[in-house]
Amino acid sequence: MPRNAWSAKRERQYEHIKSSLQQRGTKKDTAEEIAARTVNKERAQHGEAAKANPKTLRDTPAPVRGGQRSHQGAQGRTREQLYEDARRKGIAGRSKMNKAQLAEALKR
């Protein structure tokens, strides 16, 4: 975590996210990790980071997205998220699969 590179605003954002998660019952270590990842992603999307993942730059910022992908309901995870899970599990043919096929392959 390059927290020494964070501005005062990002530091406040980190603390706010962390305390919010802890109030909802998330363990301290997990809350810190999620908060740091969120702040780092926001920094990258706003051009404050030296290096950024291209997927991060293409993604809709969290304040704009507003819980669109809360992973609940009929839509579930995005195709990219399913693809990354399939990649981690070493599922063959994943690049040619659509969202439904990836979800089915991950269930096996």
Overall description:
It is a single chain. This protein is mostly helical and 108 residues long. It folds into 2 domains: 1-67, no CATH class; 69-108, no CATH class. 58% of the residues lie in helices and 0% in strands. It contains 6 helices and no strands. Helix 1 packs antiparallel against helix 2 (28-45). The chain is globular and about 45 Å long. 10% of the residues are buried. The model has no long low-confidence stretch (mean pLDDT 84).
What tags apply to this protein structure?
108 residues, 0% strand, 2 domains, mainly alpha
- Beta-strand share of residues: under 5%
Secondary-structure element string: HHHHHH
Spatial separation of the terminal alpha carbons: 35 Å
Task: Tell me roughly what share of residues is in helical segments.
Answer: 55-70%
Reported for the largest beta sheet, the result is: none
Low-pLDDT residue spans: none
Question: Quaternary arrangement of the chains shown?
Answer: single chain
Give the beta-strand count: 0
Count of spatially separate domains: 2
Pairing-aware structural class of the strands and helices? mainly alpha
Q: Tell me the Rg in angstroms.
A: 16 Å
Instruction: Please state the overall shape, judged from the principal axes of the Cα atoms.
Output: globular
Residue-averaged pLDDT: 84
Q: Helix count?
A: 6
Write the layout of secondary structure elements.
Layout: H1 8-23, H2 28-45, H3 54-58, H4 62-65, H5 79-89, H6 99-107
Offer a concise description of the structure:
With 108 residues, the protein is mainly α.
